Amino acid sequence: MLKCEGLTKGFGEILFEDFNLELDDGEIVAITGPSGCGKTTLLRCICGLETLDLGQIILDKKIITFDKAEARGIGLLFQTPVLYPHLNVEKNLRLGGGGDINKALKEVGLEGFNQRKIDKLSGG
User: Fold this and answer.
1) Whether the Cβ atoms of residue 16 and residue 34 lie closer than 8 Å to each other
2) For range 22-46, the mean pLDDT
3) Multiple choice CATH, 2-66, 3.40.50.300, 3.40.50.800, 3.90.1150.10, 3.30.70.260
4) Structure pTM?
5) pLDDT band at residue 17 under the 50/70/90 scheme
6) DSSP string covering 3-47, please?
7) Ranges of each domain in the chain
8) Strand order in the sheet with 13-23
9) Dihedral, CA atoms, 79, 109, 119, 94, nearest 10 degrees?
10) Cα separation of 34 and 18, whole Å?
11) Closest CA to 4 of 43, 73, 53, 56
12) CB-count burial class (<10 Å; 0-12, 13-18, 19+) for 89
């Protein structure tokens, strides 16, 4: 089980504050939000690639908040390797089988980002 309690992180401005999450083994979750809101930083904190300002991370009943990344046993796959940098957002999404691209972008807070290049997607 992975448990995040009161996670807070900022770089001058607060990216996320009092974030809580509890995941059982085998459970899958999607973390969504607008560009630059701290999604990647949150994942980097959980994996140990970034330090938290406040909060606690618990994995299988062991506090791992201050453990080095290599000791945590958590993997992270960044978005860049799974997105084609020579294609814009819309073209990358179309590779996934179609559907309503505008609706999908609206649902994850990226409405209007259709033509944006992948390397210009994150504001953070």
Assistant:
1) no
2) 91
3) 3.40.50.300
4) 0.65
5) very high
6) EEEEEEEEESEEEEEEEEEEE-TT-------STTSSHHHHHHHHH
7) 2-66, 80-120
8) 13-23, 2-11, 54-59, 62-63
9) 70
10) 18
11) 56
12) buried
Rounded CA separation 95/85 (Å): 13
Q: Three-state DSSP class for 57?
A: strand
| Residue 31, Cβ density class (10 Å: 0-12 exposed, 13-18 middle, ≥19 buried) | middle
* Cα 29 from Cα 8, distance rounded (Å): 19
Q: How confident is the model at residue 52 (pLDDT cuts 50, 70, 90)?
A: very high
